[in-house]
Amino acid sequence: MENKSLDILEQYWGYKAFRPLQQDIINAVLQGRDTLALMPTGGGKSICFQVPALQLAGICIVVSPLIALMKDQVQSLRKKGIEAVAIFSGMSHREVDMTLDNCVYGRIKFLYLAPERLYSDLVKERIRYMKVSLFAIDEAHCISQWGYDFRPAYLELAKLREIHPNTPFLALTATATPRVVEDIQDKLSFVGGRVFKKSFRRENLAYIILAEEDKMARMLRMIHKIGGSGVIYVRNRRETQEVAQYLINHGIPADFYHAGLDPVTRSQKQDSWMENRVRVIVATNAFGMGIDKPDVRFVLHLDIPDSLEAYYQEAGRAGRDGKKAFPVLMYQQADREKLWENFIANFPPIPFIQQVYHHLGNYFQIAYGAGKGLFFDFDVVDFCKRYKMDVLPTLSALKFLERDGWIAVSESVFIPSRFKFEIEYQELYKFQVQSAKYDPIIKLILRTTGGVFDFYITLNEYELAKKLRISYDMVVSMLQGLQQLEIASYLPKTDAPQLEFLQARVDYKHLFIDTSFIAERKRIKEQQIKAIYAYLDTKDCRSVALQTYFGEEEETFCGSCDLCLMRQHRDDIHNTLQEEIKTALLAGEKDVKTLVDELTLGDDDTKLHVIRLLMDKEQIVLRDGLYYWNSDF
């Protein structure tokens, strides 16, 4: 069995040996046992289900919330000659139907699903007719309300157990506390399951926490000192561009990355960084999933992450080649306060949640008693603007509505297409006269929008196509043509999130909201915020603090984090001072001022501290205001 696994590993991936724990996890899966694998970021989790699935008869169903990662893995498997498909939001009913048919009757080995798809009766019914060899659950911590990224759609995974009761589950995650480990197994109804856990310590990572008022200047010094390739994480999209431009202005090849960029641009930016044409990528937390760049020498957080789980995962993208690397977090007191403010905003009052639901019905023009099963493209930014609501509490309200089974939302934020004319009106008119092809679409844009010469306006390509009575692809082609001719700038939309009404619309006064669940989630999130604060304030060792949080007993300090290095420096100074004090007092007794003045290291407080320590040990004694070295030592 092990030889077969190794043969597959070498045939398709070119490796002659597995990484730690991979073989053990694969063997457990091949034995048909439910398995939970806790492996740090970059530990090779996908190998753990892909290799055994290729040995087993039937199809492996992989559930993941990360659409970009699903697409990447499907593409990667196909390049290896392995049949793989994915179903995610934005696909038409016909596309889904055909894909599922291929999984039932074709030679597909891997079907990737977003968890929201399990709400669909069509998907569940077709899975019933598939010969499923394995269910692989990626980002398994999402199933637990104790996890840092709880997603209600993951609770639907239990229905897979009902459809194929004898098919094993392999749950995979990089971060889980002991409570989450138990919860994952419970929610997935593990039978005789096994848990494989790799140590959370990364020996080559030197964790550094800096309370810093001038982050930009410190960032530059750090980048120059450490050298090599790196990632800088910031909280919002605006900061990605500002920080990247700051680095470029100071001679550092940099670029920015966030979820609002179109897929082609995102891929280009990622490739430039992977191939070291760009040294530093400045990104939101949308960057990093599935990226395995070995030579990342630093990961810098310019804002405090929402949880230690998120921090550990993002910091762990450094040093995958096993060489020394530096996860650095810089913060100010204002950042700590902002983190708490965001926490409060994440738990809006019940009337606000009811109001969001009411506005959703009006936004999509759903009649009372209707709407069940309807899908819509959802622009949450436009929705918030229309009803004058803040985005953060609105997103939280949507999650709670999803948890209670009223709606399902596939992605967090949708940014629509944007468009702007780059030439003056007179020049545009001349262009229209000369180009009959583009004249209709230009007239329509001018007639239906304002300010298009001054700033970007949002466009709906489907609406343009409908009004012009041409295809969507033709509209996109013309908009792209206007950009190529430098007549306009056209920024295509990101992948549109889907919002589905799972129940018929009710009056918001009759809307059931699980208040006890919200209270419990708030308590859990408060614990996670306090854990981040405790990590910032710890005085012992960063690595030990992280391991303790994840339930791993560890007493040995790492020796490389900022706290360990400061402690070592302090110990070195103390040892040298003790020798200086001994030499000075053996030469003759001295009063405290004379003794302190003769010592060469440290400030006066440090010198006095060491003197007191030696007095406590009775290595020096004080008589009549003079210090003597105790000759017994």
Automatic annotation (TrEMBL):
<keyword id="KW-0547">Nucleotide-binding</keyword>
<dbReference type="InterPro" id="IPR004589">
    <property type="entry name" value="DNA_helicase_ATP-dep_RecQ"/>
</dbReference>
<feature type="domain" description="Helicase C-terminal">
    <location>
        <begin position="218"/>
        <end position="364"/>
    </location>
</feature>
<dbReference type="GO" id="GO:0004386">
    <property type="term" value="F:helicase activity"/>
</dbReference>
<dbReference type="Pfam" id="PF00270">
    <property type="entry name" value="DEAD"/>
</dbReference>
<dbReference type="Pfam" id="PF00271">
    <property type="entry name" value="Helicase_C"/>
</dbReference>
<dbReference type="InterPro" id="IPR014001">
    <property type="entry name" value="Helicase_ATP-bd"/>
</dbReference>
<comment type="similarity">
    <text>Belongs to the helicase family. RecQ subfamily.</text>
</comment>
<keyword id="KW-0067">ATP-binding</keyword>
<keyword id="KW-0347">Helicase</keyword>
<protein>
    <recommendedName>
        <fullName>ATP-dependent DNA helicase RecQ</fullName>
        <ecNumber>5.6.2.4</ecNumber>
    </recommendedName>
</protein>
<dbReference type="InterPro" id="IPR032284">
    <property type="entry name" value="RecQ_Zn-bd"/>
</dbReference>
<keyword id="KW-0413">Isomerase</keyword>
<dbReference type="InterPro" id="IPR036388">
    <property type="entry name" value="WH-like_DNA-bd_sf"/>
</dbReference>
<dbReference type="InterPro" id="IPR001650">
    <property type="entry name" value="Helicase_C-like"/>
</dbReference>
<keyword id="KW-0238">DNA-binding</keyword>
<keyword id="KW-0378">Hydrolase</keyword>
<dbReference type="InterPro" id="IPR011545">
    <property type="entry name" value="DEAD/DEAH_box_helicase_dom"/>
</dbReference>
<dbReference type="Pfam" id="PF16124">
    <property type="entry name" value="RecQ_Zn_bind"/>
</dbReference>
<keyword id="KW-0479">Metal-binding</keyword>
<dbReference type="InterPro" id="IPR027417">
    <property type="entry name" value="P-loop_NTPase"/>
</dbReference>
<feature type="domain" description="Helicase ATP-binding">
    <location>
        <begin position="26"/>
        <end position="194"/>
    </location>
</feature>
